[in-house]
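# nightly structure sweep
# worker-07 picked up a monomer target from the shared queue
# config: single-sequence mode, recycle default, output format = C-alpha cells
# input follows
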Amino acid sequence: MGRFTMAVFVPKRYLFLSGLLILHIVLGIMALDYWIMYREERKVLATGAQVILDPGHGGVDPGALSGEVKEKDIVLDVVQRMSHYLEEQGYSVVLTRDADVDLGGELAPGRHRRDLQARVRVINQGQVAVSVHCNTIEDSSQRGAVVFYQKGSEAGKQLAAALLGELNKVQLLNDNRPLPRENLFLLRTSRIPTVIVELGFLSNQEDRQKLMEPGFRQQLAEALSRGIINYLEQNALSSTTRWL
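# output follows
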C-alpha cells in the first residue's frame, strides 16, 4: 500500500508577513545589543570625568551654627562619603579640602575672598563641581534642600536638576526647582558646570536632627552622587548623539 502525503498550502501573503515579523525581531535584537554597547561606552567616557567636591567653610570658619552643630563638619562628612561612593563607581574625585582647614590662609583682611578664590582654582581643573553647604535662617519653620546654579548656565541648570531629582528621594526639598543666582562668587567665577547644594536648615529642628545622623548623611551622599552620575552620563550620551 502506498504512503499518502498531504501537501499543506500556505498563502504567499502569510509567508511574507512571517518573514517580515522575523526580520523585525532580528533587527530589534540587533538594535538592543547596539544600544547596550553604546550605553556602556558612554558610561566609560563619563567615568573619565573629574568631579570636584567642595565642602563649604572649614578651619576658623564654622559656617552655620546651631549649638555644638557646625556646618563645616556636616558638609565635610557628606562630601567624604560622596567621594568614596563616586570612586567606587570609577570616577576621579578631587576635594577642595579633606580636613577641617580654611583655604584663605592667615587671619587677615580678605581671608574669605582668598578662601573662595582657592576653591575656584581647584574647581576649574575639573569637569563638574558640587559645593555642599547647610542653610540657616531666622524663620525656623523653613526646612529642606535647595540647589543653586549660575544664572544663564544651561549646563549648571541641568546639573542642578539632576541633583534635585535624586535628593527628592531622600530629603524634603525647600524648592523643587533649580534656583538661578547672579552674584555668588563661586558660581560666577567657575568655568565648568558648578552648583551649590544646601542640604537643609540647621535652624530647623527636624532638618538639624536628621543632618546629625550618619545614616541620613550617607543617604544624602549617595543621592547627590547618583545625581552627578546621571548628569555626566546624560551629557556624554547627548554629546555623542549629535554625531550619530
